[in-house]
């Protein structure tokens, strides 16, 4: 499935962003994410776009929330939202780390997805207890990945001729 994500910035609101996921065949909107910036924390509401909300995606069904820490280095996606039935769960976490050169060089990124429990054909449950003490984030940071699928970005190499970090995409853009 090919999809496109379009970003829309509303200049009338401070730090407000909207991202909409479209199917490439026919530009059908599927999901939308709206950033809410508060003094204490920022988060994105993840909404499913239905026929009734096509004209105004902000009225779609909220299916998850992506919370980020103050520094913007840790992200936690969970389904602990109003109207959700069942146990609230953490569904993915993303952690950015500074490297040896500090803020000037490329950052390392880790993504943690719950692993699949083979007997049940469902994801390992990580109970949502809040962003500060999330078990899924703690597991990813400590690389205790028995119940996680860890994804790590490929580190770029320094190119002294160009004076920049580079990745070889083997001819792909």
Compact description:
The chain has 173 residues and is mostly beta strands. It contains 1 helix and 13 strands; from the N terminus they run ββββββββββαβββ.
Mean pLDDT: 79
The gyration radius over C-alpha positions equals 18 Å
Number of strands: 13
Q: Element order, helices and strands?
A: EEEEEEEEEEHEEE
Instruction: Please outline the major beta sheet.
Output: 9 strands, antiparallel
Low-confidence stretches: none
Give an overview in words:
The protein has 173 residues and is mainly beta. The protein has one helix and 13 strands; from the N terminus they run ββββββββββαβββ. It has one helix at 135-142, and strands at 3-9, 17-23, 28-37, 42-48, 61-68, 74-78, 90-97, 108-114, 116-117, 122-123, 148-152, 157-159, 164-166. The strands form three sheets. A nine-stranded antiparallel sheet has the order 1-2-3-4-5-6-7-8-11, covered by helices on one side. The chain has a two-stranded antiparallel sheet with strand order 9-10. It has a two-stranded antiparallel ribbon with strand order 12-13. The chain is globular and about 55 Å long.
